[in-house]
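User: Hi! Is it possible to get a structure for several chains at once, not just one? Here's what I have:
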Amino acid sequence: DAGVTQSPTHLIKTRGQQVTLRCSPISGHKSVSWYQQVLGQGPQFIFQYYEKEERGRGNFPDRFSARQFPNYSSELNVNALLLGDSALYLCASSKTALGEKLFFGSGTQLSVL
Amino acid sequence: AQSVTQLDSQVPVFEEAPVELRCNYSSSVSVYLFWYVQYPNQGLQLLLKYLSGSTLVESINGFEAEFNKSQTSFHLRKPSVHISDTAEYFCAVRPSGGYQKVTFGTGTKLQVIP
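Assistant: Yes, the chains can be modeled jointly so their relative placement is included. Here is the combined structure:
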């Protein structure tokens, strides 16, 4: 079975632009979470979605939004990009909303110039 | 709210030597504890986890961690490291109830020297 897949792997944007990142969870996994990992730091929780509903949100501005589709894939949108949004964005999936084991994708490296 | 402290940003160690990566956490509620490993240009992989029961947990590749509630610690140890253990290790916590908001530490880079 394929693992968690994220696209694109790399992305370069300029300040003020909007970006959409995509994630496909492991087959059978219904929960998707998004994390932001700034260089030199640990990942920070952004969102969790389960069965197409938002189950949790981290301390991020409203410029960040996400959604989950009927096939459990997910998109993370970031509007009005800032230089500080440059980071590795990680998607993680699990079978259930409370599942203890998260499976991470390799991430999307976003650079904002 | 939870927080995780990994005091050592880098730990160099010679091959076949023992290593300990330190992790302390803070939380007002009961938590699950995790260690994740990140190899270069890859996502995170779960190394081991503590949910309940025995305070000593082990991974399949020789790492172990011990939950110490009184010291709020979850240090990671390995008696003999291998070159392939070179990676960044993240300690993490999440509430035992509720949703999956995992709080990660800042990571410790383990460099195994041949």
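The mean pLDDT of chain B is 93. The first strand of chain B starts at residue 2 and ends at 5.

User: Great, thank you!
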